């Protein structure tokens, strides 16, 4: 497999991710959401027509987005940048810029600290609520 093949694979994965994002968007904007924008009498008598209209809207949006995706790739030289990244990784097998892949990345460390703080705050609030409930029970006749 050549360097260009790796770039093509990454580009394909980028496109697959983009399509998954689109799928998720259209899962949240269903035909029922679309039909709710119209008067109920229109929906009941023209449901089939509205469904065709919704299907065309989804199809046209997907098509336009795929074209725009390719334009964005060209505009920002994404293919060229992927090939450059591939060359850099080949020159430094331990990872780019000499950082071993086994090291904890700063973003990962920050997420861990954030998660730990959230858990501590959750425990503190849980104890506070338990204390309030106990005090309320004491006040009841």
Automatic annotation (TrEMBL):
Transmembrane segments: none annotated. Its main location: nucleus. This is Uncharacterized protein. Pfam families: Nnf1. One of its GO terms (biological process) is cell division. InterPro entries: PMF1/Nnf1. It is found in: Chromosome, Centromere, Kinetochore; Nucleus.
């Amino acid at each position: 497999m050549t360097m260009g093949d790796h770039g093509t694979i990454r580009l394909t994965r980028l496109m697959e991710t983009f399509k998954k994002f689109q799928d998720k968007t259209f899962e949240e904007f269903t035909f029922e959401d679309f039909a709710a924008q119209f008067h109920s009498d229109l929906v009941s008598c023209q449901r089939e027509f509205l469904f065709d209209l919704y299907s065309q809207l989804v199809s046209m949006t997907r098509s336009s987005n795929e074209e725009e995706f390719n334009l964005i790739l060209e505009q920002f030289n994404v293919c060229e940048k992927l090939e450059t990244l591939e060359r850099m990784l080949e020159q430094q097998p331990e990872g780019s810029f000499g950082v071993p892949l086994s090291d904890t990345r700063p973003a990962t460390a920050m997420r861990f600290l954030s998660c730990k703080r959230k858990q501590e705050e959750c425990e503190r609030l849980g104890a506070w609520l338990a204390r309030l409930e106990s005090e309320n029970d004491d006040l009841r006749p």
